[in-house]
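Protein modeling request. Please complete all fields; requests missing the sequence field cannot be processed.
Requester role: graduate student
Desired output: 3D structure, token encoding
Chains: 1
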Amino acid sequence: MKIGIIADTHVPHKNERLGERMLEALEGVNLIIHCGDLVEPAVIEELTKIAPVEAVMGNHDEDRFGPELPRKKVLELAGYRIGIIHGDELDGLHVNKTQQFDLLSQIVVEPFIDDKPVDCILFGHGHRPLLESYRVIFRPGPDYIEKKVKKDVILFNPGKPIRSRHISSMGFLHLGDDDIRVELKIFSYPKKD
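Delivered output (193 residues):
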């Protein structure tokens, strides 16, 4: 299964429309996951012309989406559990994108530890791609067989798919029978004099 991963499109808040390079790269995926800051519902409408879309709310989405989009969600796909979060809150307070990487465990991982273990957490907000492996201790609660589960979890932020200075980025998640593969796609642009 091939999944397109994007975040922080900010249409039309900071960008007029979705980038053509990104839309072309998404052709042929089975699913698109948007990790928040869509800004307009029209973004989902445009993306669903390519593939089904799953999305979470970012800090710029609440006014236009309300309770329609959750702050986080877990998808069960091809035998894997995939967590999705924007990654902009700590104890209900907004975290600036420049602080996100220093607080990664608290704002991206901890929201998922009181549930069944996830294999991968996808997030946005930072506008910069990041791929990490984290050792996580999940405490899924009394209905789960084990009290604690230690697991290595992939953390992936696809960056911003619409030009920011001289690059833009997005990603793909490949869910195979025996493994998860993450692919980062970076688009470069010529420097203007």
